[in-house]
TrEMBL record:
<dbReference type="InterPro" id="IPR036865">
    <property type="entry name" value="CRAL-TRIO_dom_sf"/>
</dbReference>
<dbReference type="Pfam" id="PF20710">
    <property type="entry name" value="DUF6824"/>
</dbReference>
<feature type="domain" description="DUF6824">
    <location>
        <begin position="340"/>
        <end position="420"/>
    </location>
</feature>
<protein>
    <recommendedName>
        <fullName>DUF6824 domain-containing protein</fullName>
    </recommendedName>
</protein>
<dbReference type="InterPro" id="IPR036273">
    <property type="entry name" value="CRAL/TRIO_N_dom_sf"/>
</dbReference>
<feature type="region of interest" description="Disordered">
    <location>
        <begin position="1"/>
        <end position="21"/>
    </location>
</feature>
<dbReference type="InterPro" id="IPR049227">
    <property type="entry name" value="DUF6824"/>
</dbReference>
Length: 432
């Protein structure tokens, strides 16, 4: 097989000047006017976290993958893809791998094929040809990449929004200072981002429901994150990965950042651009705005004064590295969904929306449980377990390496314990 030369990277492909706010407004107006009424409604639902999910059938998946294969054959200029295929056809044609891109494009086979080709191109530019036919792990990252990964300025908050979508928080003020030139620094940021997003995209629920990004630029240190090439390339690379951004919320408190915001909006694809929303204000004002869009603000890594914690973030990636080295991999539950019940203590478990719904179920059936025999109490506990599962929920426990689903017996024990705890709490409250 002969290969054509690869295209030049978009890492250095940036406009000489920022587009004006009027340019962005005109572009958005054109794109919104091209949408049907239903498509505009879908944009609104996506942004507010109330959108529906495509109902997948075996036929839809099979036909979609077949169309992707046909579309890939029609693309002539795909040097990196062809090279990866020559290295390991099974990796490139892996059904699970291709389905991630198909879901990211809502089963648009043409867009999925184009994204797959771009994915291999940027992967080759960032990691080299020898890595094209294998998943990137932390051991493939440079020290500068790892510094950026563990710094915590890109965090997955570990909890879904009200639509069950993954939520990423980009903390621009936490960007580590590496003392590198802008182009080199940008490439390290992209390598980190490529790795992290490919890990997050392994989550099947995120593949189906999409992802939300919060760009947090409130109380930023003076002069931080003014790397235009980094903003441009970061947004551009999103269209090369198997992720679908259903909403992007940009929180900022300085008008000096408007130029970078317009540049990022201009770099985005049309699907993402119409789903971007900017929120100008203080810490408390921006948090309040996010809450109205279904963001679980209790899970954001801020204290009451707006200070950022990176403890959970570092622990997550540390566990991930151990699992990569043991070749055991992470389970599919990278972050709990809105109907999942979390076993454990602490604010995260107590305030998780799935736990709140679960406690309401227990309260509703308390009297029936208290008045039942031992055998009937067991049946009621199993009934609660089934109610959670019927709503697409799971009983999850953090085993030290991530969230895993427990068996029905462990879930039933959790329910029985919740009934006993509720009875003890009510009795204690009734005592004078």
């Amino acid at each position: 097989m002969s290969f054509q030369e690869p295209p030049s990277s978009f890492v250095e492909d940036i406009p000489d000047s920022n587009p004006s706010p009027d340019d962005i407004d005109n572009l958005l107006n054109t794109e919104l006017c091209s949408l049907s009424l239903n498509e505009r409604g879908q944009v609104f639902d996506d942004i507010h976290g109330v959108s529906d999910v495509i109902e997948e059938t075996p036929e839809l998946v099979s036909e979609g993958l077949q169309r992707v294969d046909e579309e890939l054959k029609l693309i002539n200029d795909k040097y990196a893809y062809d090279f990866a295929y020559a290295l390991d056809p099974k990796y490139v044609k892996n059904r699970v791998f291709l389905l991630r891109f198909l879901r990211a494009t809502m089963f648009d086979a043409h867009s999925a094929a184009s994204r797959i080709v771009q994915h291999f191109e940027i992967k080759m530019e960032l990691f080299g040809k020898e890595k094209l036919s294998q998943d990137i792990t932390q051991d493939d990252l440079d020290p500068e990449d790892l510094t950026m990964l563990y710094a915590g300025y890109y965090q997955n908050i570990g909890v879904r929004d009200r639509a069950g979508r993954g939520v990423d928080l980009w903390l621009t003020g936490l960007k580590p200072k590496l003392g590198l030139d802008p182009v080199t620094e940008t490439k390290h940021r992209l390598r980190r981002m490529f790795y992290a997003q490919m890990v997050i995209s392994m989550d099947e629920e995120i593949q189906k429901k999409g992802q939300v990004i919060i760009v947090w630029a409130v109380d930023m240190p003076q002069g931080s994150n003014k790397n235009r090439s980094a903003v441009w390339a970061t947004v551009k690379m999103l269209s090369c990965l198997p992720i679908r951004l259903n909403a992007v919320h940009i929180c900022y408190d300085s008008v000096l950042l408007k130029a970078l915001i317009t540049l990022g909006s201009y770099a985005a694809d049309a699907f993402t651009r119409v789903r971007m929303r900017s929120h100008y204000g203080s810490y408390s004002e921006c948090v309040h705005e996010l809450k109205t869009f279904g963001i679980p603000i209790y899970a954001l890594p801020f204290d009451e004064n707006g200070n950022v914690s990176t403890e959970n973030h570092k622990a997550f990636w540390g566990k991930r590295r151990q699992l990569e080295r043991s070749c055991s991999g992470l389970g599919k539950v990278l972050s709990p969904g809105p109907f999942d019940v979390l076993l454990g203590r602490g604010r995260l478990c107590q305030e998780h929306v799935g736990n709140v719904r679960y406690r309401q179920m227990v309260v509703k059936h308390k009297q029936q449980y208290d008045n039942s025999s031992t055998v009937d109490k067991t049946a009621i506990s199993f009934m609660i377990v089934n109610m959670v599962k019927d709503s697409s929920g799971r009983f999850l426990k953090d085993n030290g390496n991530g969230w895993v689903e427990v068996d029905d017996k462990r879930a039933r024990d959790k329910v029985s314990h919740s009934f006993r705890t509720l009875r003890y709490t009510n009795n204690a409250a009734s005592k004078p």
